[in-house]
# Entry
Amino acid sequence: MKSEVRFHGRGGQGVVTTAKILANAFVRTGQFGSSFPMFGFERRGAPVTAFGRFADTPIREKTQIYNPGFLVVLDPSQKQSPAVFDGLKPDGMMLLNDKEGPGDISNDNLKTLAVINAKGIAIEEIGLPIPNTVVAGAFARMSGLLDIEPVTEALEDFFSGSKLDANQTCARRGFEEVTIINF
# Structure
């Protein structure tokens, strides 16, 4: 089974790192993971898209993901963008970082919406508005494809010491505090 995820956000939010963390977590479970970014202007605040493929067989495809089964939106200002929903497969799932909640999000192909105040949790735990590790934990819970342990273990390749501890707490809180809405 292959899962394809498209990540949307802005430079500085850890969009690319989120995709890498999840690919690493899938590999730790004996599966396969691949992630890669697509940059426009490479600067803080510019729109960033990343892609992740996760499967139980080797992944050879390296193209952009045009028909994702999962959307991950780290920047709440993009939640109503038609580009975000472009190509979403029927029965698709979306994870949204937004302290305001889902609002009036709707799409004919959206079956599950998960919402987490990842930025707020990140500020509480690491003192920075970088939601990526919270989102990684929330994705594990929403998707049902991973447990939290491989995600927290994957963080060992990105952080150490007190930063590792704080980011593992972020991931656990994302896993525990995400709100999942089925349509």
Summary: The domain at 2-182 is CATH 3.40.920.10 (Pyruvate-ferredoxin Oxidoreductase; domain 3). Strands lie at 2-10, 32-39, 47-55, 70-73, 92-97, 110-116, 179-182. The helical segments are 15-28, 82-85, 118-126, 132-143, 148-154, 161-177.
